[in-house]
Specification:
The chain is 43% helix and 5% strand. By secondary structure, the protein is mainly α. The strands form 3 sheets. A 4-stranded antiparallel sheet has the order 3-2-1-4, covered by helices on one side. A 3-stranded antiparallel sheet has the order 8-7-9. It has a two-stranded antiparallel ribbon with strand order 5-6. The N terminus is likely disordered.
Length: 510
Amino acid sequence: MAAEGFDSFDDQPVQAPAPEVAAEAPAVQAAAAVAAPVVSRAERAETVASPTVALRRGLPRTPGGEPWPPADAGARAVVDPVAVQPISAASSVNDPEAAPAAEPLVAERVERVEVAVPSGIALRRGLPRTPGGEPWPPADAVATVAVVPVAATEPASASSEAVVAASEAPSTPGTDISVPLPFQRTVWQGDAPRHGAPAPEPVRHGPFTKGQWAGVVVIGGIALLGAAAMAVFFVRWLLSTTPLQDFLTTYPGEYHLPEGAPVGFPGWLGWQHFFNVFLMVLIIRSGLRIRTEKRPTAFWTPRGKSSGKVSLTIWFHQSLDILWLVNGVVFIVLLFATGQWMRVIPTSWEVFPNALSAILQYISLDWPTENGWANYNSVQQIAYFTTIFIAAPLAAVTGFRMSGMWPKKAEKLSKAYPIEWARAVHFPVMLYFVVFIAIHVFLVFATGALRNLNHMFAAQGSVDPTAYADNWTGFWFFVASLVVIAAAWVAARPMVLAPIAKLFGTVSSR
């Protein structure tokens, strides 16, 4: 492209060099191309072009402007004594025509190119070259760049120097060349720009992060509320139909107990209820601690059996299990001895259609109005039967298989009842107890809190559903039981448990 008279960068026309300086053109153009960025730092560093040398022009400095530098700009090149052409000392460097004719020679090399800087504009200065010195370059320095040597065919004459010069053009006084020139933006970041190192992976709790869990809870809660509202409207519409109204009349949600069934709750049942809740809460607490404990703080070893060493948390959990089983055995004995079993064990197949009727009434928010002092509804009866005679034995059997009391040498028994089965059942049974307790407490408060608390904690009640509806005795007994349970929850730590465990074995830190 250069041979055709166009710039290789912006395809702008370039002034061709004069024939008489054809030999000097490659060196001077190379020097001008290197020196051009230094000159272009000034706001208006324009020079008058030499009649024989034209600078290469590049991109415009302002949008829509002319290519830079201007077409009439020039450069001054200083060469060594091996001159381009011998001239007399009397000749003027600014008037090439005044020089006498001489045999043209080819320059051996160009030492440096000096770019003229307009007056009043200083070069950018950097760090000093010696400790404590002045910034480099000096304040009056002229920019100089090296040029690749050009081989010569003949030695030059003894002339001292040949200069191709250009006069200095006027410029804007006080221009600060350190300020970047304004430009029109032509490059933007893409859709996926790079911003250094990637962000660290967020901490996950199970399959989700904390933020994701919060979103699951919020969205899941909204979805459950929506599904519950739809279920309520649907069941209420269903119960308004004639067949379902007849069904509710036939099966109101409870059936009559056998003759001789006791009425009310004896005092021992209230105490059994308190001990059961007290032990169950601590069992759930210690069981969850066993699942999450990575390094126990203390260990317990039975006397005379060093192989039975377990963590203090496991000892506490198993001790509570034993007390809970003892309380359960006493409860079962008294349950059958006093006839209270007829209240919690179904005695008729009518329990199932009545249970369905009670469930529909619960969903429709028109809850059953039975009096628990005289009888439970069928849903309550099935739930109590499942808890006492199914869930509790499963918890005991699976817990015994996982404990240190299981006989280690019973290989056939261990093979018939693998510990993996026990682990697969024990934890879901614990979750069942948690759900049962939550629903049980909710319904106690939602269906007449004072009356129900009097039944369970004060053993006070009547066949009249409105009796004891404003009696606070059972409520205060309930509050006292919560205080005791909370105190035991806080005290269930190694500092308190270790002295008690030492009464039955040895406590150590490892």
